[in-house]
Amino acid sequence: MTGPTAGTVPALELDDIQGTVLRRRPDDYHGVYLLYRIDDPAATKRSLREVLPKITSAADWELPRPYTLNVAFTYRGLARLGVPEDSLASFSEEFRAGMAARKEVLGDLGANDPGNWLPPLGGADVHIGVMIIARAPEGLREPVDAAGRLAGVNLVYRLDVGVPVTGREHFGFRDGISSPHLLGSTDAPLPGQDSVQPGEFLFGYPDESGTPPPGPAPEVLGRNGCYLAFRQMHADVAAFRRYLRDNASSPEAEELLAAKFVGRWRSGAPLALAPDHDDPELGADPMRNNDFRYHEDPRGLRVPRGAHIRRANPRDGLTDTVVAVNIHRVLRRGAAYGPPLPDGILEDDGAERGIIFVFLGASLSRQFEFVQQVWLNDGDFAGLGAERDPLIGDNDGTGVHTVPATPVRRRLTGLPRFVTVRGGEYCFLPGLTALKWLTTLPDTAAKPATTPPTSMPESDR
Question: Which InterPro entries match (predicted)?
Fold first, then answer.
């Protein structure tokens, strides 16, 4: 694939890009995810105009404001607002169909099947998504009140999120370390961070091929926007702890086994740099904790080829293959929800806890769905056959994870499902100019909220 001219750095329109695309949430955070059904499109558009000044752009993310607020829409939501038919048809097929209709591609079968999702996820009533993050609980009051004043809508879902008291996600790992760097953004890349053309994630800019990817029409709607995949994932922490206990000879061996599942120690220290013992100082150092490649570990003796981080981002591990890794990258914005399971507890307490995964990119099929289907839920790309991601893969009690070693590799069997999909949605995160355009659409007779897109298979309606 021929990329843009070397040294070319596009100028990003930071004041028109919703901030969550380019900016990470703070390490210590409190947040809320809100989903709305549009009942009165005209009233909704009027009230959205009032909310526009509160939406956070990439340019004002770091200003001394107590919160960030971003807004996205499902296909049904755009239709309800009166987006013209030709514009709706310009969105990708997978976006128009919705996440639930893509269950075969995503491996959302068995316990993960949309028939088991928490309502309203995957249903007809999700039209608008609002994401609010604050550094302190009191910072949520103003934006949540503003979202609560939206007219013409009905709140159908609320999920509060925040960093657990441990500072790590529920399985105990430091999260959010690795992500691609967008050329043209104001942040300098960290050591080991891949620089990727912005068109891989934002419409209106060149992607890795050197040309802008086709986006929604008209240009005012598509430019500076991207697709967003939202997933609520329940974490069975007790099952994870039991598996480690049953397959390790000591607490120290449990920690090494957990690291072999993920590719990092719980501190965030990568096995590629700390293969034998955890190094919390390394894990906490952003100048070192992501600065590694896999060329010196082709067999996976340090980081198993099936480990979570090696699947989610193979880095240079696929250099001699036909796969161009940079066209399958995703931006991920995760958040934890629910109470932590107390230390030492090996039985589930019935509480709902897990992670919200938010994936951002210019192509749901080439990025999010490819990673989910080919890298996380299959092993052929790494010569591992039907092995799935050991932590978040679609395992059902028969899962396998191979840990290379000398003289004899270890083959872990009977992996249960540690993560269960509770639901999800495909959304479009528009630029701020596009948001304003959406609020000025004529108040015409909108499609009923229950009308499925024409691209959705009959069996999934």
Answer: Dimeric_a/b-barrel, DyP_N, Dyp_peroxidase
pLDDT at residue 36 greater than cutoff 50: yes
Q: How far apart are CA 67 and CA 44, in angstroms?
A: 23
Angstrom distance (rounded) from CA 435 to CA 16: 10
Compute, in degrees rounded to 10, the torsion defined by CA atoms 86, 91, 97, 98: -130
Question: Tokens 């028109």 sit at which residue?
Answer: 16
Give the tens place of pLDDT for each residue, 355-395.
999 999 999 999 999 999 999 999 898 889 999 999 999 99
Same domain, 308 and 326: yes
- Same domain (yes/no): 76, 99: yes
Residues 6+ apart with CB under 8 A from 273: 279, 282, 288, 289, 291, 292
Cβ 399 vs Cβ 393: under 8 Å: yes
Give bridge partners of residue 71 from the DSSP assignment.
130
Query: Residue 138: which domain range?
Result: 15-174+425-456
pLDDT digits (tens, 9 = 90+) for 174-191: 988 888 999 988 888 999
